[in-house]
Design brief:
Elements: E1 6-10, H1 20-27, E2 31-36, H2 45-48, E3 53-56, H3 63-77, E4 82-84, H4 91-101, H5 111-115, H6 117-126, E5 134-137, H7 140-150, E6 154-158, E7 168-170, H8 173-182, E8 189-193, E9 197-206, E10 212-220, H9 224-230, E11 235-238, H10 244-256, E12 263-271, E13 277-283, H11 291-299, H12 303-313, E14 325-331, H13 341-348, E15 352-357, H14 360-366, E16 369-375, H15 378-389
Parallel strand pairs: 1-2, 1-4, 2-3
Antiparallel strand pairs: 5-8, 6-7, 6-8, 9-10, 9-12, 10-11, 11-14, 12-13, 14-16, 15-16
Helix pairs in contact: 1-12
Length: 392
Amino acid sequence: MDRPLNFVMISPHFPANFEPFAHRLQENGIHTLGIADTPYDQLSEGLRSHLTEYYKVDNMEDYDQVYRAVAYFAHKYGRIDRIESHNEYWLELDAKLRTDFNVFGYKNEDMLAIKTKRQMKEIFRQIGLKVANGDVFHSDEEARALVEELKFPVIIKPNSGVGASDTYKIKSQDELEVFFNYKNPNVEYIMEEFIDGDIVTFDGLTDHEGNIVFYSSLEYSEAVLDTVEKDGDMFYYVPRDISPKLVELGKKCVKAFKVKERFFHFEFFRVKETKELMALEVNCRPPGGLTIDMWNYADDFDIFSEYAHIVKDNSFHANITHKYNVVYISRKNNQHYSNSLEAVRKKFGSKIISIQSVPGIFAKIMGENGILARTETLDEMRELIQFAHAKD
């Protein structure tokens, strides 16, 4: 191709740690064409200087406005080659725009499989993966009948939803009846049997043909629901060593869900009693929080740059060796810790990558402060967590 690629970036400023996508794409000679509803002068200087052009709309939920923005870019720069937000919230918007402008990537017809948990289960079953039993319900009566089959406790969550929002662990008939009073009437819910297990993930990036060029994993101290409920400490980490079985099942999922030139974040239960892996859900975008930065620290590379290379000429340059475990450790203002943040920094020195404050909307889960650190061994990592979370 003798012209620069035209890459439309939906909401390129959010989250802030995704801004380097624009930096690396532009540095690779790609036109970075941003669309959002934030005034241009409120974008960071770094982002402004790496956008070829920015189109502000009044309302991102108004499809006509966003469509006109893309049409303007197409008229000015020529054929649009990519449309991407890297954000779960805009998956359907991205797909609708790709469909209307005939752009490479997921289209409208792909959304059912990657957005709805019921359809995900069907695909998991088709490729031989075990899943938690469950189904959608459309009335209180259907829910009561379903719980007879699944038995308490059960998990109820939106069939199409983001993260742990609007998700409930229901332990009794009384709690189920209370749920009926506060459920959102505009949401389709799915009910699943409760699985006593830890969540582990298989994450990474594929090339244009769907080959995995990079993969990683996440392990959590506990379920997000539990962290929110008790308002306590948490940590999660990118491990150096990843179970071969997890990699095997993850590769099956990448193929089944046709993940091409995309990031992926697949969640599995590791059943506590048997250590068996059960498929939970797929997310065809990068993991949230600081995970994408944690990948860079785990391997001393630049995932944003590698993504730009994949888009530009379908090449991946980094040599991935999983050099470090990288951990995020929350610190909450409502806890009384034995050791100050400064004491943590002093004791663990070069193992500490950064200590940062967390925006209010994420603090309930991530703590008001977060410690990012990396270690060569899990024992070193556990020592660091224990020191950071020790109480008076």
